[in-house]
Amino acid sequence: MLKLYILLAIRNLRKHRSTTLINVLGLAIGLVTMGLIALYVNEEARYDRFHSKAERIYRLTEYFSSNSRKSAILPYVWRPHLIDELSEVQNATSFQLTSLVVKKEDDVFMQDNVLVTDTSFLQIFDFPAVAGASSNLLFGPTDLLLTEELAVRYFGSVEAALGQELDLALFGNFERFQVQGIVVCPRNSHVQFEMIIPDQLYQKHSFNPPGYENWSLHFVFSYLLMNRQVDTKSFGRKLSDFLKRHDERLAERYYPTIQALEDIYLRSDLAYDFSPRGSQMNNNILLLVGWMIFIISLINYVNLSTARSAKRLREVGIRKVFGSNRQKLVVQFLVESYILSHVAFLIALLTLMILLPQFNEYSEKAFSITDLVAFDNLSILLLATSLAGIAGGAYPAWRLSSIRPITALQQTLRSKAPRHGISLRGALVIVQFVIAVLLIAGTGVMVLQIRYMLNKDLGFDMEQTIVVNDLGTISANKVRRERLKGVLSNHPEVVSVSGSSTYPGIPPWTLRFAAEGADDATEESLACIFTDDDFVPTYAIKIIDGRNLDDERITDSDAFLINEAAVRQFAADDSTWLTDPIGKRLKSSFLGVDGHVVGVFQDIHYEALHLDVKPLVLLPYETNYFNINIRLETDDLPATLEAVGESWKELFPEVPFNYSFTDDQFGSNYANDRKLQKLVGIFSVVAVAIAAIGLFGLAVFTANQRRREIAIRKVMGASESRLIADQTKSFVQLAIFSNLLACPLVILFTNMWLSSFAYRIKVPLEAFGWTFLITLLVTVTTTGFEAIKTARSNPAKVLNTE
C-alpha cells in the first residue's frame, strides 16, 4: 500500500512540475539557511566542552567597585593559598599569554600566542598530546611544548621537532628550551596557544619579579578545578572571606568570584579577556534569523501546497466514490508532502556541501563535511524537514478528505476568506513580509552603526601609525629607545616614535591612585598607560590644560597627565579639581610614587565604543614599556615601511620588525559586530529571495484561477494596464501593510542590539524608506511578470480551452 501511495505522489508531483519546482526550491533555500546557522551556532556553543573535567573547572574573576569594572585577570600569588585554604578547590593553575622572540640557529622570529604557565595546567585541561608529552606532564624549567602547526613550521614535521632546541628571549634575556612534546589546541578552545613554556625562568627575568608576590597586581588568568560543581554566589562569599584574611583593605574594593568554564567564550563581558570572543546575543540573533527564514520558506511551502490542493477536488471525489476512506486520503497527502520536503532536504544537503568553503570564509570558521553531517546539525535539518512535511500535507489532507463526494465532483469548493479583512493565505504572506522587513532594516541599522563607530572622532589620530611589540627589549631601555628615535628621525616620513605599555584599542593597565590629602584607603582604580613624552604627539592627543610630559625635566619623573573623566572623578570629592587641576598631587601605593598633574588632555576613546570613556592616567614608568609606536607621514607607505624596517634590522637584529597598524588593531574590537552584520546581511537577501519565490508561485496560481475572468473582462473592453494593476494590487497592499506592521518591531529589536554600545546611533527613518522601496520593488517585479503575461494572453484561446 505504501508503494502505491509513493507512486501516486510521484505522479501528482510530476503533473504539476512548475509548482513542485517552486516549492522544492523555496524549502531547500530555507533548509540551507537553517543548516548554516545551526552549524555556526552549535560550533560556538561547544567551546571548551572537550575537556573531561569541564563541569568542574571555573575561572577566577574580580569586580572593582571603584571603577565598576569586571576583570578576567588576578594576582599570581592567590593560586597556592586557594588550594591550601579552600576545601572545594582540588587544583589551580595560572597562566599568561604573551609574545616572545624566538631564535632558531641564525633565524629570528616573533612568536605570538605563547602560554606561560605552571605544572598544573595540563593536569586540569585536556589538550591532547600527539607526540612526546603526556597529559600529566610535569615541566622542567626549560621544557617546551609546541602545537602540531608550529612544530611543522619550525622543524618540518612533528617527529623532527621532538628533542630540538630553541632560544627564547625572556625580557631580553635568551634562554635555551628543549621541545618535549607536541600537543593539540582545538579550535573550539577559548584559550588559543601555539607554544607552552614553564613560568620559572619567565618570573626570574621579569621586569617586576616582586609582582608575583603582590596581592593586588592583576596580570594572570587563574582557573580552579573543584571537587564538585559549586554555586557561584556562595563560593564568591568564601572568596571574599579569603581575601579579607590576607588583605582586609583590598577586600573592601575588590570582589572576587568565579565563572564556569563553559560560560567564558559566549557569556563573558570582562576586561582584559581573551580575543576573539563569541557573543551569546549574536548567536541568539542568528538563531532568530534562521527560524525567521525557515518560517518564510515554510509559509511558501504551505501556501503553495494548499493552493495546489484546491485543483484536486475531482480526484478526491472520484476516489471517494470508489471507496477510498478519509484515512487513506490523509496518508496520501502526507506522503506527497513528505516526499517533496525530503527532496528539498537532499538538495539542501548537497548545496550545503558546495557552499561550505564560502561560508567558512564569511564566518571565519573551518567547518568540514564531517561537521555538517554531525548528529546535532543533521538532526536539526531533519526535524525542520519533517515539520515542513507535516505542515504542507496536514491542512490539505484534513480539508479535502472531509469534502462530500458530490461537492468535490462538482468542484464547488470555495475559499472561506472573509468578505472584509485578510484571508489565511494573505495573513501568511504578511508574516513573510514582516520577517523580510525586519531582516532588511536590521541589516541597514547594523551597517550604519558600524560605519558610525569607524568614522566617529575618537579624540586622537591613528592615521599611518604602526605599533611594534618589542616586549620591552628596546622601548623599556631609554638609551636604546633614544638611539632608535635618532636613527628613525633621519627618515623624513617618520613624525615621532614613542614607547608605551599599551596603545589605543588594547585595554590599558589599571592601578590604584589616591588624590592629594586622601588616605590610602580611598585609592581609586584608574586606567593608566605607561609612556614617554612622545606618546601625545604620536597620537595627536589634544592637551586642554597645562602641558605635555617632558622627559628632559627631572621633576617629570613623577608627573601625570590625566583626562577630563579623571578630573570629574576626583572633583566628586574635591571641587577645586574642576577649576585648577594642574599641580594637584596623586599617589599610588603600588608604584610608590607621589607625583603631580602637569596636564589635562581631552577625553579619548582608547577602547571600543561599546564602553564609556573611563578616567585615564598617562605617566612615565620605563620598565613597563612593551610597545613602540611610530607615526608616519608619507605618500608611499610600502616604501617607507621597508626603509624603516631596514633601519630597525641594522640596529636591533635580535628583535623582528613585526608591525601592525593601530587602526587595524582598534578595528578588531568590532570583529564580532562586523561578522554578525555580514551574516545577517547575507541571510536577509536569502529571506527576500524566498519571499519572492513564494510570491511568484502565488501569483502564478492566482493568475491561473482568474484566467477566465480576465479573458471575459478583456473581451468587454478592459485595458491591459487595468488588468495588470488589478492582479498586483492585493499583493502591493499586503506589502504596504507589512511594512507598517514591521516598523515597531524593527525599532524594538534594533534598539535591543544597539543597547550593547555606549555610543550608538538612533534608528534612522531612512532605514524604513529603503526597506519599503525594496519590498515594494520585489513585490511589483515578482507578481507583475505573471500579471503581464496573463493580461496579454489571447482571450479567445483562454475561453475556448478553460
Q: What descriptive keywords fit this protein?
A:
802 residues, 6-stranded mixed beta barrel, 28 helices, elongated
Please explain how this structure is put together.
The protein has 802 residues and is α+β, with helices and mostly antiparallel strands. The strands form three sheets. It has a six-stranded mixed β-barrel with strand order 3-4-9-6-8-7. The chain has a six-stranded mixed beta barrel with strand order 14-15-20-17-19-18. A four-stranded antiparallel beta sheet has the order 13-21-12-22. The two termini are 35 Å apart.
Concise overview:
The protein has 802 residues and is of the alpha+beta class.
Poorly predicted spans: 412-421
Shape: elongated
> How large is the radius of gyration?
34 Å
Tell me the fraction of residues in β-strands, as a range: 15-25%
How are strands sequenced across the largest beta sheet? 3-4-9-6-8-7
| Oligomerization | single chain
Overall average pLDDT: 85
Largest sheet: 6 strands, mixed, barrel
Fraction of helical residues: 40-55%
* Number of DSSP helical runs: 28
How many strand units?
22
